[in-house]
């Protein structure tokens, strides 16, 4: 137990918390800084590379929290969990009884899986977030014969792709797969490649994976067992590829446009779970993966509650400050409540956790030094680089026509098993793009979206592979 007084206090050892600490250490090295982390390992970002000004790719790795001392020798690391924030007196208390006074605080407590409604009745409905949850999943995978996967976003797509030797029933409420990230055309592109995974595609799959392989060690120490440690690293699902299940052939059935009505444990059946769907069908299985999104982790109390967003996240302005002065928030726990630039929106991703935390650090520093701060340029354009079904995927701007109504055009170029390129245009100007494969179009698309150049004169040539469109703009 200790009493401590610092200028800057950061809570959470995920990408957001660590980025905030790293940025503050650079901006204000002489000032006192502390981090409260509920787990002995923290996340950090390495191998940052730029495809373009705002399109950044990086690896996410995990490291001992005390390695942060390298960047800030006077950093106070408090291995504990936040319990209460007294915003009037500007002090926090922790579950372990520590009291820390601050001038400015940044809350980066991340999120937890938002599970389907019957999850509280049965422990065979799993969510994936941290190492422990993956271990439990691996155990179930080793002996399971059939699993039901609910949800149509990143985690469900990765699980469907990576698991073998088990029957999979993928239950989605859309009429095409992976709807969070792609459109129906790209879904078809992926499904075709999944059907006939040729040796060539298998080869590509390995060459385009990120360099860092997820290796979160068993040595991770959870300080508070009720609090999940940071979200997993990028290659987490590769562990699933090596799980041996001798039960049988891989089979995938996708059931579109349905939801789960109920899940019941049964003991008179070959399988111990029955999943009833809204279309009247019942599926017997061993366990259910609920990959149905994230809930912000506001797992502590306030004397004065800041405003929340409609998803329960702490509402923040363009400087990442909540509605309570000197209380900032970043990453999955935050709800972006400022008026967005035309080509940006919030999705809970590493990139945004990192960007928000960098912005929060700048604004916290500006508060302490009494300076003005402007929102970072990165919030001008939504960008996401990832790997789906073994392919590089870059998403830019309003890549699925989000918020554009019905008044937009789509331009497509696709080569089976190689690339899928979609441009979303409105009034002849590029609003968003999906780039799958090694397209090398990232920088051009970024410029076209940010500069809103009228592309009408180019017609369909904008996607003609024989014309180097960059030449037009040089
Ligand atoms: C399986 C999986 C795969 C993903 N894949 C991708 C991907 O490919 N690309 C991508 O962009 N994004 C991906 N994401 C999303 C990405 O991981 C998150 O958006 C990002 O990690 C959020 O970072 P964060 O720091 O806000 O939260 P977290 O990583 O959740 O970190 C929160 C930290 O706060 C700590 N904490 C919580 N409560 C307290 C408390 N009361 N006191 C002290 N500490 C506390 C936790 O222990 C944790 O260390 C994935 C997520 C998951 C679960
Ligand atoms: N490669 C990547 O970039 C990856 C990113 N992630 C990130 O990790 C986090 C967690 O991933 P994930 O859980 O996949 O979350 P996502 O938000 O990506 O996807 C959730 C999915 O579940 C659906 N859903 C929500 N509630 C229900 C319900 N009750 N019944 C049926 N379907 C439902 C959503 O549909 P609807 O859209 O209709 O609400 C959506 O398709 C996200 O922030 C995600 O972006 C995770 C893995 C990989």
Concise structural overview:
With 474 residues, the chain is an alpha/beta fold. It has helices spanning 15-27, 131-143, 154-162, 184-195, 199-207, 238-241, 350-369, 442-451, 470-473, and strands spanning 3-5, 8-11, 33-37, 41-50, 56-64, 76-79, 82-86, 91-94, 99-101, 104-107, 111-113, 125-126, 146-150, 167-171, 251-255, 260-265, 273-277, 282-285, 287-290, 294-296, 301-302, 314-316, 327-329, 334-336, 383-388, 391-397, 409-415, 419-426, 429-436. The chain folds into 3 domains: 3-112 and 295-379, FAD/NAD(P)-binding domain (3-Layer(bba) Sandwich), CATH 3.50.50.60; 115-215 and 226-292, FAD/NAD(P)-binding domain (3-Layer(bba) Sandwich); 398-473, Enolase-like, domain 1.
Question: How would you characterize the overall build of this protein?
Answer:
With 474 residues, the chain is α/β, with parallel strands linked by helices. The protein folds into 3 domains: 3-112 and 295-379, FAD/NAD(P)-binding domain (3-Layer(bba) Sandwich); 115-215 and 226-292, FAD/NAD(P)-binding domain (3-Layer(bba) Sandwich); 398-473, Enolase-like, domain 1 (2-Layer Sandwich), CATH 3.30.390. The protein is built from 9 helices and 29 strands. Helix 1 packs parallel to helix 7 (350-369). The termini are far apart. The relative contact order is 0.16. The structure holds flavin-adenine dinucleotide and NADPH dihydro-nicotinamide-adenine-dinucleotide phosphate. NADPH dihydro-nicotinamide-adenine-dinucleotide phosphate (NDP) binds at residues 116, 150-156, 158, 173, 179-180, 259, 291-294, 347-349, 386.
